[in-house]
Design goal:
Blueprint lengths: L1 H29 L9 H13 L3 H32 L1 H16 L2 H12 L3 H25 L3 H9 L4 H39 L4 H10 L3 H30 L9
Helix pairs in contact: 2-10, 3-4, 3-6, 3-8, 5-6, 5-8, 6-8, 8-9, 9-10
């Protein structure tokens, strides 16, 4: 019952916050021109127009495929590199300055380099997502690998466990929470920078449509795309990422009586 009451209270709070947001939006829109700040009604009309557009799902699918491709590459490279740095202090000391460079360079700079190297193509967005997400995953996995108890590693060696067994039975359970935390953050950043990359170097996708609407001063469509994008991210976060995190780390939660 306590869990149900907590969930009910949380839903009420979220609905109240949403109502306040739309009320403030409505009041602000009444005092501004529509091309500066369209109201909720005009934005929802533009959203319905997008829904009827034949290219909507194609643009969403293209953007998602670019984000997931870059994120998948970042996950593979970042995880392997993070494990390698966590397992070797010398290797970590040698490559640490390079990691600082990756974390310092802005995504907009990577987007400019990507346009120079790959032109107007999907590779531009994939590269920017990769260069944004990879350092975050690498850093978190590296930190997780450093927390592995050395006595367990020595014990694994003494019983002649293979490197793969040591990785899966000792390193993996320790780094998994760090990895998931970094992956969620990296995916969120990757999704946002993909729009920047598509705005600068793509001929389709959500970012391209946002730029197109902005160039034509179709502010209602810009708001409609933004609202659609936020809804998709909230759906992905609440419908996939959070349930997956609760399932993977349910052993960390106290048992409810």
């Amino acid at each position: 019952m306590r869990i149900l009451r907590k969930k009910g209270s949380l839903i009420v709070q979220r609905l109240a916050l949403l109502a306040i947001f739309f009320l403030l939006w409505l009041l602000a829109a009444r005092n501004m021109p529509a091309f500066v700040l369209p109201g909720p009604e005009k934005t929802f009309q533009a959203l319905l127009a997008l829904w009827r557009n034949n290219t909507l799902w194609q643009d969403i699918g293209v953007t998602f495929s670019r984000v997931f491709s870059g994120f998948l590459l970042a996950t593979i490279v970042g995880t392997l590199a993070g494990l390698a740095l966590g397992a070797s202090r010398r290797l970590a000391q040698f490559f640490e300055p390079l990691l600082a460079v990756f974390n310092t360079v802005s995504s907009a700079i990577w987007a400019i380099f990507a346009i120079i190297w790959f032109g107007i193509s999907s590779a531009t967005t994939v590269f920017v997502v990769f260069m944004t997400a990879m350092p975050l995953i690498l850093t978190n996995v590296w930190q997780g690998a450093q927390t592995v108890e050395r006595q367990y590693v020595e014990l694994a060696r003494s019983v002649r466990m293979s490197r793969l067994q040591t990785l899966t039975k000792i390193y993996l359970p320790t780094i998994l929470p760090y990895f998931f935390s970094g992956a969620r953050l990296a995916f969120g950043f990757g999704w946002r920078v993909s729009l920047v990359a598509e705005t600068l170097g793509a001929s389709d996708g959500i970012g391209y449509r946002l730029r197109q609407a902005g160039d034509l001063v179709q502010t209602d469509q810009v708001f409609a795309w933004t609202l659609l994008l936020v809804s998709l991210m909230l759906l992905l976060e609440g419908g996939l990422l959070k349930p997956l995190e609760r399932h993977l780390f349910r052993w960390k939660s106290p048992t409810q009586e």
